[in-house]
Amino acid sequence: MVKDLVCGMEIDPANAAATRQIDDNTYYFCSQHCADTFDADPHAYIHGGKDNGADSDEKEVMAHSATTGYNPNLTGPVTAVL
User: From residue 51, how far is each of 15, 42, 82 by CA, in Å?
Assistant: First the structure.
């Protein structure tokens, strides 16, 4: 089993709806929609910048720096808990 980088679904590589080859790696997708979403920004999915299917209310993204709160992967408004 492999994980679809877009939605986080576990899928059998033999039954993947789509695949993408980047460098020496093959990425598997449960649907063409997930493959198209990946195609729009593959770097973000490969390097973990996307939430991989978690609902925005359920995920907790931490800042990379405790002093500045800077995290290059965060976009839009964020909530800081002190």
Answer: 24, 13, 23
